[in-house]
Specification:
Strand content: 35-45%
Low-confidence stretches: 1-35
Oligomer: single chain
Number of domains: 2
Helix content: under 10%
Distance between the termini: 41 Å
Strand order of the largest sheet: 3-1-7-8-12-11-10-9
Structural class: mainly beta
Number of strands: 17
Shape: elongated
Length: about 240
């Protein structure tokens, strides 16, 4: 169920660290009483006050928490404060594009309206925390939500199937948990079609031994690699996936 509360935020400094998740009441809040972080589920994020005397409305659901700041003279400037803050190493976010991949393109906060999105890994495996700022017409909206997946670079141009197989055969068997010193000691076959891991298409490789006493190929492992070889996984017997790199 949605819960809404409205407060009038007052502060002496524009860069005051605060949390609106615990705000309540209609009276002006004393700066010293303001908590120092947003809290969404098990995730905590230090945030900065967009503007002195900004009006803040909070909407909380199980899927997200939305903070709407109104009466801002420079909403793009308020969004820029988040950009400067959340990218600090101690806060741990990366700027991401609309597809969720890490981006190096800084938004133009001088535009009358726009959006900037950030993501960081969660303690909960396979989840990432998204923090999105949207600004327009004296308003800056900050949304926090969880999303499946990891924070990754955009996929490269990719390799052909032959190039991917040749690359896979250069990997040291020990990295795959196999014996030997060269993949030449094994037979490697590619599977048909792509297998998606956290939304990224991967090529399947099946590795067989060729020196077992039965003189028959014995499956030693099944692996998945993304298109540019930057992600490699092993498929376990229970069909779960273990990341190798």
């Amino acid at each position: 169920m949605k819960q809404q509360s409205k407060i009038l935020l007052a502060a002496l400094m524009l860069a005051l660290f605060m949390s609106v998740s615990g705000c309540g009441g209609d009276e002006a809040a004393d700066a010293s009483d303001l908590p120092a972080s947003y809290i969404f589920q098990d995730e905590t994020v230090n945030v900065v006050l967009p503007s002195a005397d900004a009006e803040c409305t909070i909407e909380e659901t199980e899927e997200h928490t939305v903070y709407t700041y109104e009466s801002l003279s420079l909403p793009g400037g308020a969004a820029r404060l988040y950009y400067d803050m959340v990218l600090k190493p101690e806060v741990g976010f990366s700027l991401v594009d609309e597809n969720g991949y890490i981006s190096q393109d800084m938004p133009d906060f001088t535009q009358p309206e726009g959006m900037a999105q950030y993501a960081r890994e969660c303690e909960q495996k396979g989840k990432k925390l998204l923090l999105r700022t949207e600004w327009k017409e004296k308003t800056c909206v900050v949304t926090l939500e969880l999303e499946a997946g990891n924070v990754t670079d955009p996929p490269g141009d990719g390799m052909t199937l032959d190039e991917a197989l040749a690359f896979f055969n250069t990997i040291n068997p020990s990295e795959l948990g196999l014996e030997g010193t060269s993949m030449g000691e094994y037979d490697v076959y590619t599977g048909s079609g792509a297998v998606f891991v956290q939304g990224v298409p991967c090529q399947k490789f099946q590795v067989y031994s060729k020196d077992n006493p039965e003189q028959t190929n014995h499956l030693e492992g099944t692996f998945l690699m993304n298109g540019d070889g930057t992600r490699l996984y092993r498929i376990n017997e229970d069909d779960t996936v273990t990341e190798i790199w």
